[in-house]
Amino acid sequence: MVPVRFLTDYRILLVLPNVQLSTAEIYKKFEMNLTKYAHHVKFEAVILGIRNLEDLNYYLYNDLEQVAQTVYPELAGIRERLLASGAAYVSLTGSGSAMYGLYHKESDLEAVGELFSPDFRVYAAQPVT
C-alpha cells in the first residue's frame, strides 16, 4: 500500500456565467484529436506527482474546455482573469459552463470574487477532509 497525501490547504473560487452549455452539444463537437496532451498518464504517477497546486497544471486538463470555448468564447476570458488574479490552477467544470480557480489563501478570494460580480455568480469553497 502506498500512502497518498492529498492537497487540502487551498481555496476554490467557482465562477458561473449566466449561460448554460448543452452537454450533448459539447460532446458532439468533441474530437479526440483536439486532446491537448497526447501522452498516457499512469494514475499512480499522477497521485504521487502532485505535491502542490501548481503541479495540477501538468497533470490535469479538461479536454472539453477547448470545445466549450468554441461554443462560449467568454470562457477564455474567465480563465485569463482567474489566472491573472493569482489562481494556481484553473479549469472548466465538466462540460461547462462554470470555471474554477484554486488559490493558496482564503484572503485572495474576496477581492477576486468582486472582479466577476455582478456579471457572474461567484462562490467560494474549500476542500473537506
3D structure, described in words:
The protein has 129 residues and is an alpha+beta fold. The protein has a single domain, classed as Alpha-Beta Plaits (2-Layer Sandwich). It contains six helices and four strands. It has helices at residues 23-29, 43-49, 56-59, 64-71, 74-84, 107-116; strands at residues 11-16, 89-92, 99-103, 121-125. The protein has a four-stranded antiparallel sheet with strand order 2-3-1-4, with helices on one face. A hairpin with a 6-residue loop joins strand 2 (89-92) and strand 3 (99-103). The longest helix has 11 residues, at 74-84. The mean pLDDT is 84.
Structural class: alpha+beta
**CATH hierarchy: architecture:** 2-Layer Sandwich
Between the first and last Cα atoms, what is the distance in angstroms?
20 Å
The top level CATH class name: Alpha Beta
Q: Give the C-alpha Rg.
A: 15 Å
Number of beta-strand segments: 4
Order of helices and strands: EHHHHHEEHE
* Relevant CATH superfamily: GHMP kinase, C-terminal domain
Q: Helix segment count?
A: 6
> Low-confidence parts, pLDDT < 50 over ≥5 residues?
none
Largest sheet report? 4 strands, antiparallel
Number of domains: 1
Helicity, in percent?
Answer: 25-40%
